[in-house]
């Protein structure tokens, strides 16, 4: 517990590239999780937290939304879950002297790793307009500043209220209630940047934008297709579920432009063979698809399934299911009749034999799960691609039966629960009406802004106050320079946070930082210690109880902060017991039970052993809340993502020691990167073709329509076995290359997985790079 925050990042001399790993977890996973925890928190605090992480009566991990099994192990957490706990529960705090010693301008030169490592925020601080330093203020002063700013606006729509996926159900419900009582639906959230494409596609085709499986379905599946995701880093506990499925005879197929260690081989540290043995090989087939080629692959597999049915009528498709529960099969058949196999090969980079093998695996399996993450959702045709996933599942009735279904994997702890609780800029009329009936005030119906629309509205001067509960929007969203310029154009930015990040140093004229409790900490209110609830990726809702004393006495919970802001801003304009919400979270849950579908008798059900499962029509009863009352088989035009000559398609991704924009260290163990982040992964054949060499320093230019090129300076080329014509770099650094206007059709999600770039040898140039974050370290450490 003697850790001090770092005063500098890595240097060129420290940067190392080694051989990539072909397996995940094992003893190194234990060492890399527990060593930092014990060093930074001490053994007693570490033991108390790790022994209760993801346990019944314990607290829910904040690092992903992976569900908990019914029969939990003693250590029901992964390496990155332990790192997330250490990050949040560190006893290191930001001293009051920090604010006088560090101007906002000086902090612009610090990277995310340095900012986060300064420790926990413990007091409200305020940067007045025209000044360059934050200064401590009382909570009452802070709430008065928010009240004056919001109540001075010409319209409630001149404010936007952002939410991170770490927010609890209770805080999210109260937050949405306050915002609508204030008079707007401007409720952008982190879903807009990750799984909005999933919600859009599944909502239109199945009537629900969530997973249609339960946790137990993994062990019952015959085939699991893992598309566009890296579970070894982003949700490592999934590897255990895949291992269990494998033990029951399940085949696993990985579809990804890059080989990921966790899908190659898993060394389970809770099993002997994971410690001294070779572990479990997971993927039986690896399809190294080109970026943007997933829809072409799905078209080709679906066509092969239809052809197999034509060769042996009545033996391949689930005709009873299709007739009773779906619409659109004839149109799909007609559309795929003339599928161009040459176009498929060009789009996917795969040969016909590889696609034939996947189709044969699909046809041979009675129970199939297709699971995906942001490698699918962040493309121009992301919604259409997910609709094609649904098409393939529907053909053989792989919805609503054990061991089968659609399984989008949310990578943020309660992002799904926040949406359930009303955090969305366009909640349906049924929810808004229920909210209005429950609280007896007029609820606005006009749709609000999502995250990209919010940035654009700030650019136009239409949003003057930005209030964020958690998150780090300016780092997380695309087109960093544009986002930061837009944020600087506001009158006031408010951040409710546990630790410093880039969004605290890119501010409006005035800025507030409000420190909040972490999920690990005991939430003590007037009625006693409180618990909160969260929803995981398979629709399970359960309680989370903080286990350690707060790192400082002056920190408020998210519920308390939102409730007090509401009281300060709204006064007696609405008859809502904000004070009662803060005192006892049961009162919030009583309202949730009457407003949110599936949450009836909420207080009782969340106190059950393991909580409860929200209803899900496709999963539970093969019922579909669509325009026709049936699952919709859809026709989606194949559009090939073109790669101009001499260019590459770049995707942004996480390093292993990272959670969203939070950087735990400068290492990426599985990809062989140590003490550096400014790298671009390129196929050795592409390196040769482009006339470059491994280790060379390059500038990365992104090209978008007729806009000026965006550029990242001095990134190191790392030879890596990625798909031909493709490249990869870490976010948030590479977000600068993603144009704000480049968004998924229908979902408005940033297209971060297929950015046209060119690589040029790095040179010293005058001026600020187009698209580079003003004042941010560009190209250092590579």
Largest sheet: 6 strands, mixed
Looking at the structure, the CATH topology of the largest domain is Rossmann fold
Helix content: 25-40%
Pick out the low-confidence regions.
766-782
Strand content: 15-25%
Neighbour order of strands in the largest sheet: 4-3-16-15-14-5
The number of domains is: 4
Mean pLDDT: 93
Overall shape: it is globular
Give the radius of gyration: 25 Å
Give a quick set of tags describing it.
782 residues; alpha/beta; Rossmann fold; Dimethylsulfoxide Reductase, domain 2; 4 domains; six-stranded mixed sheet; six-stranded mixed barrel; 16% strand; disordered C terminus
Structure characterization notes:
It is globular, with a radius of gyration of 25 Å. The chain starts with 15 loop residues before the first strand and ends in a 21-residue tail after the last strand. Strand 24 and strand 25 form a beta hairpin. By secondary structure, the chain is an alpha/beta fold. The longest helix has 18 residues. Helix 1 crosses helix 2, helix 7 crosses helix 26 and helix 14 packs parallel to helix 20. The strands form nine sheets. A six-stranded mixed sheet has the order 4-3-16-15-14-5, covered by helices on one side. Helices cover 34% and strands 16% of the residues. The chain folds into four domains: 74 residues, no CATH class; 293 residues, Rossmann fold (3-Layer(aba) Sandwich); 213 residues, 3-Layer(aba) Sandwich (Dimethylsulfoxide Reductase, domain 2); 114 residues, Barwin-like endoglucanases (Beta Barrel).
What secondary-structure arrangement, pairings included, does this model have?
Layout: E1 16-17, E2 24-25, H1 26-41, H2 43-50, H3 79-89, H4 97-101, H5 104-107, H6 112-116, E3 125-127, E4 135-136, H7 139-151, E5 159-163, H8 169-182, H9 196-205, E6 223-227, H10 231-234, H11 238-247, E7 251-255, H12 261-264, E8 265-267, H13 272-275, E9 280-281, E10 285-287, H14 294-311, H15 319-325, E11 326-327, H16 329-336, H17 341-348, H18 352-364, E12 368-372, H19 374-377, H20 382-395, E13 405-408, H21 415-420, H22 429-439, H23 451-459, E14 465-469, H24 473-476, H25 480-488, E15 492-497, E16 510-515, E17 523-525, E18 528-530, E19 532-535, E20 540-544, H26 558-570, H27 578-583, H28 585-595, H29 602-606, E21 612-613, H30 617-621, E22 631-632, E23 648-653, E24 658-659, E25 662-663, E26 673-674, E27 679-682, H31 684-689, E28 697-702, E29 710-719, E30 726-730, E31 755-761
